[in-house]
Amino acid sequence: MNHIIAKIGIHLRGVGRALGINKLIGQFVDSEKYEEKFSEAMLSQVQEGDIAWDIGANVGFYTNRLLKRVGGQGRVCAFEPSPGSVQKLMERFGEHDNINIFNYALGEEDGEINMLFDENDPTSVTNKISLDGGDKVKVMAVDSVILLQGVPTPNVVKIDVEGHELSVIKGMKKVLQNKSLRCVAIEVHFGLLSDRGEKFAPKEIEDVLLLSGFYVDWVDRSHIIALRK
Question: Largest Cα–Cα distance in the chain?
Fold first, then answer.
């Protein structure tokens, strides 16, 4: 039933975007409570001693919360391509011995991309892939990170990558099959995905998760909590 509801929700979201009413609807939603619903659903799955990955860590809003949940015996791996944001992460969490901060992007395959960063505002969502100029950024697939760099397999993964969530999911197919991974929490950026020509990406993300043995729950209009069956 949840799967059917999710399909309807994806369709309605697309219709809403086409009609230009999603922004209007969003004005009636308390953004803080909206984000908290996702946050609480994800954090409730984090156990003391867990390995938690924060993909798209920005300046550490979720990194901080994950650190508190995993405790001293757990570990948080924060992935963030923006040098300015990584500097903020180091300033905030550099003294913790149970966090690893990685200054590169995660995607479908290993390589490089050009990105434009607003280093005057590390929290800016204007950081984006550029086809003309920008800074060279290293990209690795999640599966490669574990295989080549010895980073521990996560128990919980949070993904917020501003319209590149499908690429991240495609790059972690082996990890998704690992029973140690219990929860995948994703912010799905419908508008950005559509602008990139990937308007069907939310459905593709859901299908990959289902085929990998997860239940998929849309906790609100933009957030997925996927739990191991």
Answer: 49
**Is position 49 within any domain?**
yes
* CA–CA distance, 227 with 207 (Å, rounded to integer): 14
Q: What does each C-alpha distance from 31 to 28, 55, 176, 225 come to in angstroms? A: 9, 21, 30, 18
Model pLDDT for residues 135-158, shown as the tens digit of each residue: 788 999 999 999 998 899 999 999
Does the structure show a pLDDT above 70 at 17? no
Tell me if 143 is assigned to some domain. no
| Closest by CA position to 116, among listed 100, 135, 88 | 135
76 and 70 Cβ atoms separated by less than 8 Å: yes
Q: Is the pLDDT of residue 26 over 70?
A: no
Q: How many domains does the chain have?
A: 1
Give the distance from CA 5 to its chain's centroid: 22
The tokens for 211 are 């085929």
Provide the residue range defining the domain that includes 76: 2-102+152-228
| Rounded Cα distance, 166 and 28, in Å | 28
In a domain, 134, yes or no: no
β-bridge partners, 185: 158, 225
CA nearest neighbour of 102 among 76, 126, 132: 76
Domain with residue 52: its CATH number is 3.40.50.150
More confident residue, 26 or 169: 169
Res. 189: pLDDT tops 50? yes
**Highest mean pLDDT of the ranges 32-36, 39-43, 123-127:** 39-43
